[in-house]
Every structure is written in structure tokens, then in C-alpha cells.
Amino acid sequence: MQFVHHAFTSSDHCPISVKFHDQIHTKAPPFRFELMWTLRDDFSKLLKWLKKRDALLDYKRIYWQQKTRIDKANFGDNNTKYFQNHATIRRNRNGIKQFINKDGALFIDQDLIQQEISNEFKLRFTKNHLCHFDKNEDFRSISGIITDADNNFLTSKVSKEEVKETVFNLAADKSPGPDGYPAEFFRKYWDIVGNSVTKAVLAFFHSSKLLKKVNHTFIALVPKFDNPQSANHFQPISLCSTIYKIISKILATRLRSVLHKVIHPYQGAFTPNRFIQDNILLAHEIFNSFKRKKASNQSCRTIKSILDNFCTISGQFVNFDKSTFQCTRNIDRSLRGSFRGILGMNEEAHLGKYLGCPLIDGRVTKNMFESIINSSCAQLSKWKANSLSQVGRLVLVNANLASKGTFQMQSSLLPSSIHNKLDKINRDFLWNKNPTQRSPNLIGWHKVCLPKSLGGLGIKFSEVANKTLQMKLLWKILMEKDNIWVKVVTKKYLRIYSLFEHKPNSVCSWQWRKLMSIRDMFRKGLRWQVGNGSNIKFWTDSWVFSYPLTRNIDGHSNLDLNLLVKDFITPDKQWDVSKLSDIVSNDIVNQIVNIPLPHNDIPDTLLWGLSVDGNFSTKTATCKIIMLCNSSIKIWNETRYKDLNNPDKDVSVRNTTTKEEIWWEKPKNGFLKLNFDGSKIDGNKAALGYSIREHNDTWQK
């Protein structure tokens, strides 16, 4: 619809004409089995069934949830309005109103748009003759990787049980292919269709032939941007039939057992314990090192030769139109033009993003991470808040933080301004507030973000979530010595000093300096299990308590901080009590001698002391950070002491507020410790509680 204002003529009114555009006619969608149908065994009684309100609500919720393609969002109630609105917006967003082809021609007619899009993607999926595999390449120098045992397993006969297990491991409600049936249909009615499905799958592995209809695939175009208009604005994905998915899943499951052999360790994905974030972290370190390198025409020719050889051997093709290079300030301008000619790439002042994360090559600004803010605003929009209950909003806030910010948080520590904006977006959405209006919240955000065990809602502070994910990198440095990124940073930064002794400087990459800033907080969660004692520092490591022994010593200047635990273990694997008594109190000696020593010479084990299995977890790290950073936590290091020999004499009274974890320290021998706290109930009433204990933990009444 278009409104046109015309000029004044003889009247004092301005005429307006309305032009109606031709209605977009869409073709009928292909058949698709709806998951809501699985709620009833007999479809013939569907009308009677719809009269029941509870069943109708389930019917509506599952129907609209399938239409929205929302994964992992169990909102705790029906929220049908939310699913309906989301499905409507999704349909409007995915509609192609106009299309611009590669020649710049604009198309509005739907039939012409369909034809142009088909031509574009047929050309894209056609073999590129410039990219080929050289059959004359000599691979005799490469030794065999797949053993006979591996090959026997890969080619072994597929069983009926393997087919059924594969079907039940498929995602239940993923978009179906041309057959229209999702995996949930086959699981629901396996007793009816299971025999036929199994025969069809086994027939393929027996004959190596696949029916054309099974091999048919829908190409779905997922918009990369709002209002897509060209083929480059879409991401094509294949929607295969369920039989095809079962066959490919069986093959993928078997290949998974040998992928670690055929994929090079430098490849950071596709195999267990390898993550794409390693590539991003490596990119930070590589480009940081390049800043101090001197480029030349010969180095550019070497890079170009490596890329050409890669294309020849792999059969793939590098798109140099999308590739760029960057020069440091010490490169002469005349050389830069020569580099462009050799590499066939354009020069850029900034490298932009790599795998969705910005490459930091200079001063860090909040604009580098603005995309996280924009995606969070789109995810937590006002219409969604109006359509969801508070329980639904709570779930969506947690899902938003887990999906939108986590990827970049795993690779770098975001600026504080970004964290504040993310918390504000989450806060406004949870309370369904207008972001432009200022109004008090019902409950303080620091209370809302407490764990559920402490009375909160379990929402994570953005900064806390970021730090816990960065702590995983510190844990990886300690535990995964064979990881490619760990090898690089160890050789680059940790050749002389350990992780906790290393002092970063301005030459280090920005990502590494940020990572080192949270070492002290991370170290508070570590705990050593004593083996031979050769790796544990007696004073500064946590091996007796959850904190170092230096905390129990008033002055540290005279301590030998290089002492190791092995210095206090006798040759017959016993604690040297006399040597321990010379430097620590009897209470600490008693704690140490209760630590069992192994009879064999086994190395010490570093554990994450906050989890049961000793492995790092973001959940326990979150609780640790909240305990350390919440300013409302008060610790009474010293309270009122009474001398047992002179009960009327007060020795000392002192209380402090600090950002440390809560623990209880024993009083000195011959003293009592009084711990107390009070609170106001209502009006003028108050309550007071206290406890008195001796140095041996005996309670006094």
C-alpha cells in the first residue's frame, strides 16, 4: 500500500490517492507431519478431543512451538501468545519481497524471484573447473593412518539394533525434508513403521543404492540479515528426508571413532575436546606476534605459494575477493601496493572479525563488541516480554545470555561497559520495563543474580559469566598440555615462569593480558592433592586448607617461599613432625599429619577444590566469584576473646568487612571465640544469635 499526496488546486484540501500493491501469492507448502498429532493415538476422534481444554492448550502450544523453531526453551507454562507472535514475525522476516541478482537487476514478481534464486544457487553448487584435485600428486611419502582393525569396524554389517538406536538419537523436531516426517514420528510409531524403516536402511548398506526420492533434498534459505535482497544475504541449508538422516547418522557415528586419527591436531573442530575457540585464541597470538615482524615481497610469495598448494592438494578454492591483509605501521607504502599484486587481496586497516569474534590489533573500544548488544536487544525485545509470563521471561533471559554472549565470552574478557549494557537489557526484560523509562525494580539485581540455593533466581551477572568462561582457559593451560593453543602460549609466555609467576607486559596480546587479570581469583578455587610433594609450594599453595598457609602467619618477610612440601616428607614416606613443628603451630601440624601420603612415588595432583570430582565447572566457579565479589558478605576475622584464666578481662574486639570467602578460624589455645549476628524483625523488635567455641571446636553453653 502506498499513499500519494497531490498538490492543491481549487480546493483548500489536499487530495490523497492510495495505491494497492499486488498481493503476494505463495504456493501451498509441502506436506508436513505436525508433532501435535502425536498427542492422540486415534485421529478420527480429533474433533471430540479438541473440546477438552487442557488437551487443546497442549495442542496449541506444541503446534506454535514447532512453527517458531525455538529450541531448548521450556518456559514452564503455555505461553501460546508468545509462540504465535514469534511464528508471525518469523514468517514475515523470512519472506522475500524483492530480489537483486548478480547483475544488479531488481525483481518483484514472485515467479521471477523464484527463478532467479534457483539460477543463483544452481551456479553456486555447480563444480568449479578452476578448483580440481591433481591426480598426479605423489602421496607415497604419507604413511597409512587407518588400520585393518579400524577398517573392519567401519565396514562391518549394520544391525537392526544400530538402526533403532540411531533413530532414537535423532533430534525430535528438526525441520523435515521432502518426506514431511520428523524423527519424532518414527519414534512415536516405531512399533508400526520400525520394520519397514529398518529394511530400507539395511537395503542401502547391502546394495549401495539409494532411491532418488530418498536422496531428494529441500534447500532452505536462512536470512543472514533483515530484509534480504540478494543470494549472498542467505545461508543455504539442506533439509533431508529422515531415512537419509538415519543412513548419514550411522556413517557419521562410525567415522567418529577414527576422526582423531585423520584430522590433524592443528584442526580445532569436528572432534571431541577440540573447540573452534582455540582457533580464535590462536589468531590473537599470531597477529600479536606479526606486529613485530618485517614483511617483504618474498614472504608474500611464500604465503601465496602455500595457499596455491593447499588448493591443489585439497581440491578447495580460496576466495581472494573476500580475503584481506593488514600491514603494520613500519611497512613502507610503496611495498603495500606490491603486496596487493602478489597476494591478490585488498589491504584493510583493521582485520575485523574472525569466526564471529573481533581480532584485537590495537586499542579496544566498546564498538568492537556492539554486535552482542544488538543481538541481545533483538532477542529480548519488548513484544516478547509482553507475550511471556515472568517465568517465561526468566527462562529466556538465561537462554539469551547462554546463546548470544557466550561464544565471544569464551574467547575474550569483554569491556565493563558491555557487561553493564547486557545486565540492563536482561533486567529490563525480566521486569518488563520500558528501556527509556527510569523506574525502581522490585528486587535488587544483585539479589536476583544470586544462585537459587542462596535465595536468588540463578541469573548470572554478565561479568561473572564471562570470568567463569575465561577461567576454563586457565584450567586448560594447567590440564591440557597437548592443546595447540596451550602449546603456543606456553612457549610464548611461560617458558621461564609458571602460570602464576608470569608477569604480563605491554608486548603480550590484549587477550592474554585480560586472561592474566583473573588469575588470583581463579587460584582461590585450586587445591593440591599431595603425592611426592615436589610440585607443591609449602607456603603459597592451597594443600592443607582451602587457602595458603601464609594466611595463618602474621608476617611473611622471613618466610622461605621456595620451600616445597617434599622438604617435610621423610624417605620412608612419613611426615617430618619435628621439622613441621619448627615453622607452624601444633594445630596446623595436626592438620598436616592427617593428610595421607602414598607409599609410591606418584606426582602431586592439582584439583578444582569446589567440585566433587575435582574438575573445573562454571557452576562452582560462579558461586566462588559471587562469594568473592559480593560486597554484602561480611567476615568476622576476630571477635570478643575471653582469657580463661581471667574471665573478666577483655582481650580484643575487632570486626572487618572484606571481599574474601567465609571461613571460621579457631581461637588461640586458652581463649574462647564468640561469633554473633543480629537482625531487625519488625517495628522495634530485634533478634540476636551467638555461638561460643574453644580452640578444639568444643561448643560452650
Describe the fold and architecture.
The protein has 701 residues and is α+β, with helices and mostly antiparallel strands. Among the domains are: 35-94, no CATH class; 144-262, no CATH class; 292-358, no CATH class; 510-629, no CATH class; 641-694, no CATH class. The chain has 26 helices and 16 strands. Strands 14-13-15-16 form a four-stranded antiparallel β-sheet, with no helix packed on it. It has a two-stranded antiparallel sheet with strand order 1-2. The model is unreliable at 47-57, 70-79 and 631-662 (pLDDT under 50).
Low-confidence stretches: 47-57, 70-79, 631-662
Largest sheet: 4 strands, antiparallel
How far apart the termini lie comes to 84 Å
Shape: globular
SS elements, strand count: 16
Instruction: Quote the beta fraction.
Output: 5-15%
Overall radius of gyration:
33 Å
Tally of DSSP helical segments: 26
The largest beta-sheet arranges its strands as 14-13-15-16
- Helical residue percent band: 25-40%
The overall pLDDT, averaged over residues, is: 76
Structural class designation? alpha+beta
Short characterization:
The radius of gyration is 33 Å and the shape is globular. The protein has 26 helices and 16 strands.
Write the layout of secondary structure elements.
Elements: E1 2-5, E2 16-19, H1 46-50, H2 53-68, H3 80-94, E3 99-100, E4 106-107, H4 110-124, H5 148-154, H6 160-169, H7 183-188, H8 190-207, H9 212-215, E5 217-223, E6 234-240, H10 242-255, H11 259-262, H12 276-290, H13 297-314, E7 324-325, H14 333-343, E8 346-347, E9 353-354, E10 357-358, H15 370-379, H16 382-387, H17 390-409, H18 416-430, H19 445-448, H20 462-479, H21 484-493, H22 510-516, H23 519-523, E11 526-529, H24 577-581, H25 586-593, E12 605-608, H26 618-629, E13 641-643, E14 646-650, E15 671-680, E16 686-694
Parallel strand pairs: 7-8
Antiparallel strand pairs: 1-2, 3-4, 5-6, 9-10, 11-12, 13-14, 13-15, 15-16
Helix pairs in contact: 2-3, 6-10, 12-21, 13-14, 15-17, 15-18, 17-18, 17-20, 20-26
